[in-house]
Amino acid sequence: MTQRTLEGRVALVTGGTTGLGFGAAKRLLDHGAVVYITGRRQGVLDEAVAKLGKNVFGIQADAANKLDMQRVACTIKEAHGHLDIVFANAGGGHATPLEQLTEDQIESELNINIKGVVLTVQSLLPILKEGASVVLNASITADMGLPGFAVYAATKAAVRSLARSWTTDLKARNIRVNTISPGVVPTEGYSNEQKMNNDAINAYVEKVSTQIPAGRVGTAEDIADALIYLVSDSSSYVRGIDLVVDGGMTRLYAGNA
Question: pTM of the full predicted structure?
Answer without folding.
Answer: 0.93
